[in-house]
């Protein structure tokens, strides 16, 4: 029986040094029924040229361009706060799969990441499932993780725990008046004393939040939001992945986190684009 098509959205912004390896890590997945939507997020380096070259090698790859993002930089806090949010939404417009996931263009996935994630999502009848990460190391590219011991003693969080976390992390103003929460600029929300009204427990979404696997029904109700509209932003700005995952956990109440390190994340001092990371 053919397993369902999984759409992998890869947003890319000025990743000429890393995007080829990121795409290759998805092409080499043990779960074969995939399509890859690579979204050029207004890159200014040679990224698009590299993407075109890689796309020409495999028919499963589709290359699209995201519209310009006027919200990318927040001058009030002097920070790039919106990396990838609109590119992910652009990718949603092109996906054909029953299931959707992401791959960041400066990271990589171990070859059995999607297969293990899919098997767990199916086993627990989940709507949305995240996994865990390990620090990026080129020597692990193309190397499968033996998940036997992880599955035998599976560490996980389920729907009730994640829904409760979403409510703890939700600011009081967002609970009372979503419209007022949207209307107040982010730099004011961070002000001393009053910030307690706009930020809850400040917990991050557990696991690796930038590569959830979820059912297509999710994008009928949940999208990525710019910083102005986020209910669960990070305190320093950004937090698009955090906001998306908590939205899904709250809306569908069928989210899981499985603590199996299948995603390779470039930590702060490894990232060649942003000195302080991307999210």
How would you explain this protein's 3D organization?
The chain has a single domain, classed as Spore Coat Polysaccharide Biosynthesis Protein SpsA, Chain A. The chain is built from 11 helices and 11 strands. It has helices at residues 19-27, 47-55, 85-92, 113-123, 148-152, 159-168, 172-176, 178-183, 186-189, 195-198, 240-252, and strands at residues 6-12, 34-40, 61-65, 73-74, 79-80, 99-102, 108-109, 128-135, 156-157, 213-215, 255-265. The strands form 2 sheets. Strands 1, 2, 3, 6, 7, 8, 9, 10 and 11 form a 9-stranded mixed β-sheet that branches. A two-stranded antiparallel sheet has the order 4-5.
- CATH topology annotation: Spore Coat Polysaccharide Biosynthesis Protein SpsA, Chain A
- Unreliable spans: 271-279
Question: Termini, distance in Å?
Answer: 38 Å
Classification by helices and strands: alpha/beta
Average pLDDT, all residues: 91
Outline, from the CA principal axes? globular
CATH architecture annotation name: Alpha-Beta Complex
CATH superfamily: Spore Coat Polysaccharide Biosynthesis Protein SpsA, Chain A
- Using only C-alpha atoms, the radius of gyration works out to 18 Å
Report the CATH C-level class: Alpha Beta
Strand content: 15-25%
**Largest sheet, if any?**
9 strands, mixed
Helix fraction by DSSP (H/I, runs of at least 4): 25-40%
Q: What is the count of β-strands?
A: 11
Number of helices: 11
Count of discrete structural domains: 1
H/E series: EHEHEEEHEEHEHEHHHHHEHE
How is this structure best summarized?
30% of the residues lie in helices and 19% in strands. It is of the alpha/beta class and 279 residues long.
